[in-house]
């Protein structure tokens, strides 16, 4: 085993539309710009992790120009893509609306990502033998279950970012160390119907620790809360003007996984990742 991070997840080409405000149902608005850039939660997290630790990405792209561009972007960022399969299906896409406040709304079309199988993932993980495995919920549910099972069998650390939010088997949540969630996801898994996680994020984190080994809740400009069986900590962050929040959560998660793989404890890793995500947002503001 090395200090390697393996990210199991998606690669999507992001089509980013800038709008003054996002349209209501049935409404048409005029877009300000359209850009295309490699993305996908798995790809974003792998690139972030690769800046701090050896990182591998496990996923699927199509045998098309989009797939080749996404693989080139990963290689340029230092990510090992030996276990990204290439298939005849069209590569995944994400359509992202970003308004003037920096908020976004995203629609993902899975494409080739949907062809990732448990067998492919288990074989890749056996070969890579990482210290930490990170995954999300953009891949098929059976893939998430296979990742959790592999981590339990091999005594490896699972960092689970359950996004987009969806029901999870109790054994998958139980294997998470940590479960990395934003306010919406934290409310869902804690069954906090009010959704007011900010009001008492520490209490929500403690509640989630009853089902997961540890928990990290990201609160945007209000910082980060980390909890394990021994401690709950809160990290404050510098407020920065935001042009586009897309990818900031993935950057946080990738840095967190790399720090944990390097031996940092949960609370130090969360603080490190929070600083990195703030710097990432500041850099996007200036770009």
UniProtKB/TrEMBL annotation:
<feature type="binding site">
    <location>
        <begin position="249"/>
        <end position="250"/>
    </location>
    <ligand>
        <name>ATP</name>
    </ligand>
</feature>
<feature type="binding site">
    <location>
        <position position="284"/>
    </location>
    <ligand>
        <name>K(+)</name>
    </ligand>
</feature>
<dbReference type="GO" id="GO:0019303">
    <property type="term" value="P:D-ribose catabolic process"/>
</dbReference>
<keyword id="KW-0630">Potassium</keyword>
<dbReference type="InterPro" id="IPR011611">
    <property type="entry name" value="PfkB_dom"/>
</dbReference>
<comment type="subunit">
    <text>Homodimer.</text>
</comment>
<feature type="binding site">
    <location>
        <begin position="40"/>
        <end position="44"/>
    </location>
    <ligand>
        <name>substrate</name>
    </ligand>
</feature>
<feature type="binding site">
    <location>
        <begin position="218"/>
        <end position="223"/>
    </location>
    <ligand>
        <name>ATP</name>
    </ligand>
</feature>
<dbReference type="GO" id="GO:0005829">
    <property type="term" value="C:cytosol"/>
</dbReference>
<feature type="binding site">
    <location>
        <position position="182"/>
    </location>
    <ligand>
        <name>ATP</name>
    </ligand>
</feature>
<feature type="binding site">
    <location>
        <position position="281"/>
    </location>
    <ligand>
        <name>K(+)</name>
    </ligand>
</feature>
<feature type="binding site">
    <location>
        <begin position="12"/>
        <end position="14"/>
    </location>
    <ligand>
        <name>substrate</name>
    </ligand>
</feature>
<feature type="active site" description="Proton acceptor">
    <location>
        <position position="250"/>
    </location>
</feature>
<feature type="domain" description="Carbohydrate kinase PfkB">
    <location>
        <begin position="3"/>
        <end position="279"/>
    </location>
</feature>
<comment type="pathway">
    <text>Carbohydrate metabolism; D-ribose degradation; D-ribose 5-phosphate from beta-D-ribopyranose: step 2/2.</text>
</comment>
<dbReference type="InterPro" id="IPR002139">
    <property type="entry name" value="Ribo/fructo_kinase"/>
</dbReference>
<dbReference type="GO" id="GO:0046872">
    <property type="term" value="F:metal ion binding"/>
</dbReference>
<feature type="binding site">
    <location>
        <position position="244"/>
    </location>
    <ligand>
        <name>K(+)</name>
    </ligand>
</feature>
<dbReference type="GO" id="GO:0005524">
    <property type="term" value="F:ATP binding"/>
</dbReference>
<protein>
    <recommendedName>
        <fullName>Ribokinase</fullName>
        <ecNumber>2.7.1.15</ecNumber>
    </recommendedName>
</protein>
<feature type="binding site">
    <location>
        <position position="250"/>
    </location>
    <ligand>
        <name>substrate</name>
    </ligand>
</feature>
<keyword id="KW-0808">Transferase</keyword>
<feature type="binding site">
    <location>
        <position position="138"/>
    </location>
    <ligand>
        <name>substrate</name>
    </ligand>
</feature>
<keyword id="KW-0460">Magnesium</keyword>
<dbReference type="Pfam" id="PF00294">
    <property type="entry name" value="PfkB"/>
</dbReference>
<keyword id="KW-0418">Kinase</keyword>
<comment type="function">
    <text>Catalyzes the phosphorylation of ribose at O-5 in a reaction requiring ATP and magnesium. The resulting D-ribose-5-phosphate can then be used either for sythesis of nucleotides, histidine, and tryptophan, or as a component of the pentose phosphate pathway.</text>
</comment>
<keyword id="KW-0479">Metal-binding</keyword>
<keyword id="KW-0067">ATP-binding</keyword>
<feature type="binding site">
    <location>
        <position position="286"/>
    </location>
    <ligand>
        <name>K(+)</name>
    </ligand>
</feature>
<keyword id="KW-0119">Carbohydrate metabolism</keyword>
<keyword id="KW-0547">Nucleotide-binding</keyword>
<keyword id="KW-0963">Cytoplasm</keyword>
<dbReference type="GO" id="GO:0004747">
    <property type="term" value="F:ribokinase activity"/>
</dbReference>
<dbReference type="InterPro" id="IPR029056">
    <property type="entry name" value="Ribokinase-like"/>
</dbReference>
<dbReference type="InterPro" id="IPR011877">
    <property type="entry name" value="Ribokinase"/>
</dbReference>
<feature type="binding site">
    <location>
        <position position="246"/>
    </location>
    <ligand>
        <name>K(+)</name>
    </ligand>
</feature>
<comment type="similarity">
    <text>Belongs to the carbohydrate kinase PfkB family. Ribokinase subfamily.</text>
</comment>
